């Protein structure tokens, strides 16, 4: 048997550095595949030795949506050996892989549209804010002409716009629904809602009664949930004590709350907000149950 080649110290050092660089290249392309900035198919055009010597399965496992089981299926269907390196994959096999990728790209299941309504002060925002940290949900950000309250953040709590800008948005057909509420306009921009639904997210609209009615009419598949206070007294206390409104606005909101509470039966579900966590859990199970 031939003895292994004797390397000088300098040659060993050079080989070590080359191996480190190759590992770095492979880690980099895997990251790029994972974040979607390149595709596995770009690797077949790569000229770096480090990439061409990488195993195909390693690159495939970096693709979002490919796990052990899917990988097994792809390798079985294309007949490519698991030990095959990128540089050794033939043209025909690349075409077969492409076909598998086209089949994989079935769009995600459309998410559910969910309306959370109820009188001002009942705790809708506290509830929907909790849903913001759940990756299965996307809470719509409304446009409004009302004044920003202390502590509110533009483009997080609302898109605060002028009356003129709001009217232009109405004219440009940008709203899924919009309504007047105690002297200001509020509306749901339609485009981000449809995008989130198409991406499989459950979309939550936190809106007042007239907006909820428009959604019922225009999107009958939507799930309409009404939040009730534990008692009228409790609602009155919450609205008066939260200190965000003038006396006049509080009175207007209380008068409006009386009207809204009468409409609870128009909704698919009524939840009483005695405990926020419980209402959040109920909303999650309503959205996910079918
Ligand atoms: P607030 O001024 O307390 O933030 O909101 C007043 C009311 O307007 C609340 O009942 C809230 O749910 C509702 N609202 C917020 N955004 C929208 C929206 O885009 N459309 C409709 N119709 N109502 C909204």
Kindly summarize this structure in a few lines:
With 290 residues, the chain is an alpha/beta fold.
Number of helices: 13
**Which assembly state applies to the chains in this document?**
single chain
Helix content: 40-55%
CATH topology (fold) name of the largest domain = Rossmann fold
Bound molecules: guanosine-5'-monophosphate
CATH architecture of the largest domain: 3-Layer(aba) Sandwich
Top CATH class of the largest domain: Alpha Beta
What ranges have pLDDT less than 50 throughout 5 or more consecutive residues? Answer: none
Could you tell me the radius of gyration in angstroms?
28 Å
Protein name: guanylate kinase
Keywords: ATP-binding, Kinase, Nucleotide-binding, Transferase
EC number: 2.7.4.8
Pfam families: Guanylate_kin (PF00625), H2TH_5 (PF22525)
Topology:
Blueprint: H1 9-35, H2 40-43, H3 49-52, H4 56-61, H5 68-78, H6 91-104, E1 113-117, H7 124-131, E2 137-139, E3 143-144, E4 159-160, H8 163-171, E5 175-181, E6 184-189, H9 190-198, E7 202-206, H10 209-218, E8 223-228, H11 232-241, H12 247-262, E9 269-272, H13 276-288
Parallel strand pairs: 1-7, 1-8, 2-7, 3-4, 8-9
Antiparallel strand pairs: 3-6, 5-6
Helix pairs in contact: 7-13, 11-12
Enzyme class: transferase
Domain Guanylate kinase-like: 111-288
Pfam families: Guanylate_kin, H2TH_5
Describe this structure in words.
By secondary structure, this protein is an alpha/beta fold. The chain has helices spanning 9-35, 40-43, 49-52, 56-61, 68-78, 91-104, 124-131, 163-171, 190-198, 209-218, 232-241, 247-262, 276-288, and strands at 113-117, 137-139, 143-144, 159-160, 175-181, 184-189, 202-206, 223-228, 269-272. It folds into two domains: 12-104, Helicase, Ruva Protein, domain 3 (Orthogonal Bundle); 113-288, 3-Layer(aba) Sandwich (Rossmann fold). Helix content is 49%, strand content 14%. The strands form two sheets. A five-stranded parallel β-sheet has the order 2-7-1-8-9, with helices on both faces. The chain has a four-stranded mixed β-sheet with strand order 4-3-6-5. Helix 7 packs across helix 13 and helix 11 (232-241) runs antiparallel to helix 12 (247-262). The radius of gyration is 28 Å and the shape is elongated. Residues 120, 124, 142, 146, 177-179, 181, 186-188, 206-208, 210-211 line the site of guanosine-5'-monophosphate.
